[in-house]
Predict the structure of AraC family transcriptional regulator.
Amino acid sequence: MESSLILQHNMVYSCSYQKIKSTEHYFPEHALGIMLSGESLYFTNQSTFVMKEEAICLMRRNQLFKKLKNLGPNGEPIALISLFLDQKSLKQYAAENNITKQSAYKGTPMIDLTGNVFLKGFFDSLLPYIDSPKKLTAKIAELKTCEAIELLLQTGSVFQNFLFDFSEPHKIDLEAYMNHNYKYNIPLSSFAKLTGRSLSTFKRDFTKLFETTPEKWLQQKRLEQAHFLISKKGQRPSEVYLEVGFENLSHFSFAFKKQFGYVPTELTKTG
């Protein structure tokens, strides 16, 4: 099991002694993190990003990705510290430091900062709070957040645009986006935000476009993809259900049988 310790509202330490299969993630805020031990693989529609021990990464907000966590080579736990740079803190920092409005950020959503000794030192300064979380007061957390922002800005000019582009997702092509991202098991409210819509507008536009509800369409789309992967690609149901966006194998098998009339393991039988 994975356990998470919230050091402060925007600082989290997580640790697990078990390999964690692919899970969906959507961060509404920027995330700066360091891998203390173990390994995390991040999969987006564009690329794969690997974080091993001491790797440091900055992830842009409003990104969809799947994550696979592995123990270290000698059984070390999967442990990392994440700092979320929320919009409120960034807007306050921008106002206090006269940072003007930035143009839309067009760069990579994940930036590798491994080897940055100043950021490594920053995360080292957080380690004592894992054993004494009450010592990390809200005031210290605020100062630490500002320190992280300062260190990123010193690293390169691109980070000003990365951090202080406060634009929200604009209304985009719903059909193309959903056909591209249906495998991500996130709330409809997140799909709505990422396509530049309110939840009510998202549901209305979706039903008009696909002539069914988002819930029904997503399940059917995921099941059809699962059927293809099992029957045509030879994958096992246990390999497929997470990949196509189901939370557990039993629910997947039940929905699969209801859709096709037989359980997914029937497709794996020969002769």
About this structure: Strands lie at 2-8, 11-16, 20-27, 30-37, 39-43, 48-51, 56-59, 63-70, 78-85, 110-112. The longest strand covers residues 20-27. The CA atoms of residues 56 and 116 lie 8 Å apart. The domain at 174-268 is CATH 1.10.10.60 (Arc Repressor Mutant, subunit A).
